[in-house]
Amino acid sequence: MKVDILGKPYRVVEATDGQMPDSFGTASCKDQIITLKKSMAAGQKADTMLHEVIHIISNELALELPEDTIRRLAVGLHSAGVKVAMKK
To answer: Residue 47 — very low, low, confident or very high, per pLDDT cuts 50/70/90?
Structure first.
């Protein structure tokens, strides 16, 4: 899967619980990859995807948003029905 963020294509990949024991997702601006834990339920995966997209936007725009703010934005946007548009 792929997603465009600020005009840049990011590849979205899944990882096993063993590969990601301590997190639901990660984002790399340098490598343009978002990694999500494969075993998550659909709702958690959508929330985590928003979370990682907000991290990328914060980094790319030098917003320096703290983790707590990113978490709250992701939860709020997800609860309002915002979804990340992904392409195959």
So the answer is: very high
Residue 49 backbone dihedrals phi, psi, to 5 degrees: -60, -45
Residues 6+ apart with CB under 8 A from 63: 57
Domain ranges within the chain, ordered by starting residue = 2-79
Q: What residues contact residue 84 under an 8 Å CB cut-off, 6+ apart?
A: 3, 46, 49, 50, 53
pTM of the complete model: 0.94
Closest alpha carbon to 6 in 73, 81, 58: 58
For the chain, the farthest-separated pair of C-alpha atoms sits apart, in whole angstroms, at 32
Q: What is the predicted pLDDT for the residue at 85?
A: 92
